[in-house]
Predict the structure.
Amino acid sequence: MLYSARSTAEWQELDRRHHVHPFNDIRALNRQGTRVINRGEGVYVWDTDNRKILDGMAGLWCVNAGYGCRELIEAAQQQLGELAYYNSFFQTATPPQIELARQLSEITPSGLDHFFYANSGSEANDTVVRLVRHFWKLQGKPGKKVFIGRTLGYHGSTLAATSLGGMAPMHAMGDSLLPGFEHIPHPHWYASGGDLDRDEFGLRCARYLEEKILELGAENVAAFIGEPIQGAGGVIDPPQTYWPEIQRICRRHDILLVADEVICGFGRTGHWFGSDTYDIQPDLMPMAKGLSSGYMPISAVAFNDRVFETLNGGGELPHGYTYSGHPVACSVSIANIELIRREGLVEKVREESGPYFRAGLEEIAANHPLVGEVRGAGLMAGLQLVRDKAAREFFPAEEKVAVRCRDYCMENGLILRAVGNSMVACPPLIIGREEIDELLAKTRDALDKTARDFGLL
Ligand code: PXG
């Protein structure tokens, strides 16, 4: 095995000294010591103490094909041997770039047939911001610049992506909220629905968009961006009334609609894209993560004809990255899409594993004092932890109830995420029934231990 000569303690010490971790309280992490992961197979990863852990988060919402997938590995090896790199800047292209775009046009919602490549979800969303503003200028409406996103939306960590997102601590860090970005409330019915039923609440939340557009003036608004289901915000699945109304409002005011598919894309919700699950017809669609199952960094933005033709008529497009459409990442993505198709993973998630997983979570929730709500679609789920189910009373943030539960999961050999007061799960799409059973049993045990700690059991 590569790099296996050091002990866990040695890795931890070097990590402390030299490696700055993203999204961490670094001092707290250093006190505790990093868990060093060095192997993966199927839905499991192993750490340097040889502990086997069920990865209920598919890495970071991305390893949809599972670990150790031969054909993805071989696609990378073969492409590295044939042509490790070439750019697409100077009237050149590579076959994997072209073939991947062709295959994407077959699986993305109809009308989205043109693709620009980048290397991460953040870069895809920066691309959206630059190209959408460019689009409106070319349309003769240079005033249309403002982007409207949502609270608890997550679109990445570059400056523009941070601004599109609605994560307050990220905005606060180094004044990262750029001018020209606005946010409306996210549609979490269980937390904020009050006396409205789910569908009424969905309409209410969508109409915040219209109010915001009227406040700003439609002549100043470029686009609305939203994840079909908000992932990093805690798997917030909107009421069925929400997206149709958002779409109607965007069309009515000639605002571009951007569906951020970085998490929802490539089968996660039981359809190829979250936009299929919610019947959204976006103008632009950023995607990443599941595009290559996380095996290589790659992202893309899909455009419809209107956006594409307008950009085409605009002379030189002064935008791009050295690694836009990296041939190795494109080859791996092609192999990944072929695998998803051949194995029928999207249909499996929709008809078998997704409903089985959901039924298991619903059963836990029905009998557990700590779980107020199950959210999500397909193999993407959020469990809302509550202090009092009947009164729908939440825990105060400082009690860190979900972090406690997450730590019990890890003691059980299961990785789940804690987001606010919710537990979040997003296992590889190849997960089988027995592995789902294991995930559910370990989750239930961790919930029991947490409930005992908080006096609920
Ligand atoms: N859009 C969405 C919807 C995402 O979930 C990004 C864009 C940015 O992608 P990159 O590749 O630039 O990271 C994401 C990323 C979490 C967590 O804690 C989620 C993400 C990234 C890091 C942490 O849930 N999602």
